[in-house]
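ARCHIVE CARD
CATEGORY: sequence design from structure
SOURCE FIELD: tokenized fold
FIELD CONTENT:
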């Protein structure tokens, strides 16, 4: 996964890519951080309150970004499995 920071602060946000495909979007605003799958449904796969308001404070950036990437990977895996079985995700 590759992160591309699209805004430095207020909000701090990132696009998430797997190879060349955009698969997610991360955003921290008003002390609340969310990770969404990219697409029409934009499903939230990770969310947390933070110390930072419009940008991360101290060492919390690495913690939250790593958790967001793990959640996106897990959701993409579930999505792929569901598409093989025909079950709704």
């Amino acid at each position: 996964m590759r992160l591309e920071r699209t805004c430095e602060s207020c909000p701090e946000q990132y696009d998430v890519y797997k190879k060349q495909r955009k698969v997610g979007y991360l955003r921290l605003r008003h002390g609340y951080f969310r990770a969404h799958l990219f697409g029409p449904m934009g499903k939230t796969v990770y969310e947390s309150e933070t110390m930072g308001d419009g940008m991360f404070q101290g060492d919390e950036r690495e913690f939250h970004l790593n958790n967001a990437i793990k959640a996106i990977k897990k959701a993409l895996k579930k999505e792929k499995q569901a598409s093989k079985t025909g079950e709704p995700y």
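CARD ANNOTATION: The chain has one helix and five strands. The two ends are 22 Å apart (CA to CA).
SHELF: design records, drawer C
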